[in-house]
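Sample intake sheet
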Amino acid sequence: KNKRRAAEVAAAEQARLIEEQKAKEGEKACASKPVSEAPGVRGVKGGVVVVSAAEIKGGEFVIEDVEGAEVWLCGPIGALYIHRVRDSKVYTGPVSGAALVEDTSSCTFMLASAQIRIHHTHNTSLYLRVRSNPIIEYCTGVGVAPYKVAYPGSEGHMKHADLDKETNLWNQVNDFRWLKSTPSPNWRVLPLLERAPLPVCPGSAAELCQAATTHPETSSGQMSSASVPAVESAQPDIDDDEDEDEI
């Protein structure tokens, strides 16, 4: 019995190390160009920012030093880096590489990505679609639920990124700072009544999401912080078939 238990522990540790190596490779890919050089939304306080696919250009994108804002990335992204974000909502199109979230609190993130890794994040809701187990480290008060973002063109973007089908991994979270056999206390599945309604892209969505110059860039590659009026969702919450199999 003891030998069997030891073998199970060793296998679990080996699986964890493999997942950690994959995550590190994703981080390396995401940092293929200096963060300071990548286009992004930076230093925004309040308001709503909508970034079109033409502005994202399918490459790396950064969201950092944002507070009390709503950010929409309406297009495919190569790799996404989110850093120092507070009291904000971020809705993204598909990320074909890795999505890295660090030093955030009291936020809602709706992310679809090949890999998702979350560091130093607290009291935050994550709505995820991912092709590998989501990873958290040094996190507390994290709630997870299925991804639900739609904007003009999103269906085609998701299909092209091979993220159009639900993977059912959104609730298979690996907490790398919790190595005990008991469930991690740092994350939970959000009950249905606590989940946000289906978000609606604010303003004239067709123009904002598809226009090539919704927010002209500055010379540093930073998106302008012009805002559009927020629109409350008039749509009911979507049916998530997988909710019946939460855990």
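Comment: The longest helix spans residues 2-30. Residues 12 and 47 are 45 Å apart (CA to CA).
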